[in-house]
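ERR on first pass: missing label on line 2. Operator R.T. fixed the label and resubmitted. Corrected input:
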Amino acid sequence: MSKITYIDSTGSQKTIDVANGLSVMEGAVQNNISGIDADCGGGMACATCHVYVKEEWFNKLPKAEDAEQDMIDMAFEPKKNSRLSCQIIVTDELDGLVVTTPSKQV
Amino acid sequence: MIKTDVVIVGAGPVGLFTVHQLGIKGLKSEVIDNLDKAGGQCIELYPDKPIYDIPAIPECTGKELTENLLKQIKPFNTNFHFNERVQEVSEEKENWIVKTNKNKVFSAPNIIIAGGVGSFEPRRISLKEAEKYEGKNIFYSVRDKNKFKSKKVSIFGGGDSALDWALDLSKIAHVTLIHRREEFRGAPHTLNEIKKLEKAGKLQIKTKYQLSSIEGDKDIKSITIKNDDEKTIKIDTDYILSFFGLIMQLGPIAEWGLNMNKKTITVNTENFQTNKKGIFAIGDICTYPGKERLILSGFHEAALASVECFKRARPNEKYRFQFTTSSKEIQERLGCKPK
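pass 2 clean. output:
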């Protein structure tokens, strides 16, 4: 279990215990966190689980592969610290991770 | 009005296999899809990506899967209604009346919704001021390229559509290609051609920039693009072409009075019927306890839903379970030669 904090675009935040091995997207969907749509269900095919990762955490994550970058191109308002939350797998090292969701996904 | 046994909404893998399951039971179906071809997500999102979990097919691409399914349902000569979206569903005696956005009307005792996550639509520019220029100065696809002759065209995106149109339109228009990062995901060959054109001064490329605002009154006059360091550039622009792929929108389905759970339709697991008798939901769009969004789950759901469709479409006939290996009736429907 690791604590993952999801902050929405209005600043309201929720911290959830997410089991190791699940993705940050699954943690959100299973706990009714709004702001993450995940239309394709984790197939890296829709960019609707797009999140911004707090800078201190961004560099600790394994780098995004090309296919993820390609999808982030399509996301709503991508930034330097954009990631697809379906590709961030929760481990002990990510305990305390903070992600912000964009004001909308499409 | 087109009368049939089952209207299938969605021509993805599950919709296609539904044609098969209905067909071997002797039921006719009509298929409606908002895209211009069959295959759904398999064709739109990952035509070349391998799929490894189709039973007895160790590996195949989305395109191959689609082609094989089309081959498998060929004997049934099913009508496909592409580029159409189901708009309205209403009840008339024992039948459902289905209307599309092109005013086609169907009547059938059964509707099977195999709509994936909804219909595919282009991802639109999210700036508020973009709305009034859409269809006039902003386009998400190109119908008639002559419109852009000698005009200033700003093209957004890093995939094949953006690269192909940048290359093509650079011959007749003043093109600026804008992309959010250095790397393009389009074909390297096209990119090389474009880089050559840039060197020759035939086209401009701005990477690491995104659209920040649109200026104009009746028509667009210019756009402003911005990079991560908030540096902005103003570019005189007559037309914007934006290629950010497709998104899936549930659309009118949400208004048909079906019990929904977020963006999915609640069904039972006996025959995948919704809260409305004769309307079924299968594949990614349905939900029930334990649901897994796999193609193979959709195939199973299609098989079971088709049985209930038979009972509703042929109330005076008894449903008989049959194997394709031994049933002469099924083999005839499949057009098999007697062995």
